[in-house]
Amino acid sequence: MNLLINALFPVGNAAGWCKTVDEVRNLARSAAEVIVVGSITVPERSGNPGNTFAIPLNSLGLPNMGIEKLKEIGPEMVRIAHEAGKKIILSIAGFDPKEYRQMARAAQEMGFDGIEINLGCPNVADGGKRKPIASLDLRLTEEIVGLSSSAVKMHDPDFFVSVKMSPMSNPLQIIDTAELLAHCNIDAIVTQNTFPNALLFNEDGTPTIQTPDKTGWAGFAGSAVKPMALGQVNQWRKALDSFGASSIEVWGVGGVETGKDVRDMIWAGASVIQVGTAYFTYGPKIFSDIGEQYLSL
Ligand SMILES: Cc1cc2nc3c(=O)[nH]c(=O)nc-3n(C[C@H](O)[C@H](O)[C@H](O)COP(=O)(O)O)c2cc1C
Predict the structure, then answer these.
(1) Among 85, 156, 214, 221, which one has the highest count of C-beta atoms within 10 angstroms of its own C-beta?
(2) What atom in ligand 1 is closest to the CA of residue 194?
(3) Is 209 near ligand 1, meaning CB less than 6 Å away?
(4) Gap between the Cα atoms of 194 and 39, Å rounded
(5) For ligand 1, atom 14, which residue shows the shortest CA distance?
(6) Running along the chain, 297 residues long, what does each successive block of 10 average in pLDDT?
(7) CATH architecture of 11-295
(8) Residue of 90, 193, 290 with the most ligand 1 atoms within 8 Å of its CB, for mutation
(9) pTM for this structure?
């Protein structure tokens, strides 16, 4: 299913910056066409301690209210978005395939228009040890996407299902994963989540970002990742087409902050574009700024 059919300006926020009713309200009033809430997990998470965000790096560790608290405010978020004529998607994350399935169904029951299955978070640790990035594991990807998609599509075949990926430096990995996902019942690939395990230092030689495993390895995002994101979008588009899956959209995210960036993403093959770091930096006004620039190109 195409979520934003005929949208003149197919742009919205990237996951990570909208987790409250007020944030949904701000986005509903903005020029963003589609709102992404989350990522949300089954249990509430406080996130990683310490200094975990300094552009362009972050290691937040998925702080969020958890599914039970979201159930209290999710329907209100949906109402606000729909009254503004916007689509609203829930970004879901989990630590085993069954949690993803549970989150997917909860999103549908709350009235969200779709889910973004976050398989690309590099910053989650348990007991000091990092969790693997699911989208870099074919078997795990197949299991999570299969369970989540069937849980919602059996109730409504038009319920929108997208899958958010980690950037892949091995071109063959994109082809193998596209071949797998071409046969899954999904509507879009979202690329890319932050580039994993980047590192910067403070003046005293300590890592800029504090992480539970003390490495300082953090997710990399913002304007510098734009060429990488364009390359990922273009490779995904071509790979999906080659497996006869042209109906699966590719949504582009990574380093977008101007109208020209949106146009480049569309040239690369993106159907919808998401703005992360620039939205955090400039607030909801970024969408009308980018929109004016894009429409005047
Ligand atoms: C502080 C921060 C928090 C993020 N949280 C999430 C998240 O909860 N779920 C998710 O799928 N991606 C998350 N991301 C990744 C962004 O959605 C986006 O994929 C990435 O930042 C690249 O886009 P950008 O260059 O426009 O920031 C986060 C990124 C940052 C920097």
Answers:
(1) 221
(2) 20
(3) no
(4) 14
(5) 16
(6) 72 96 97 96 92 93 95 98 96 92 98 96 69 86 95 97 96 97 96 96 96 92 98 98 97 98 97 97 96 93
(7) Alpha-Beta Barrel (3.20)
(8) 193
(9) 0.96
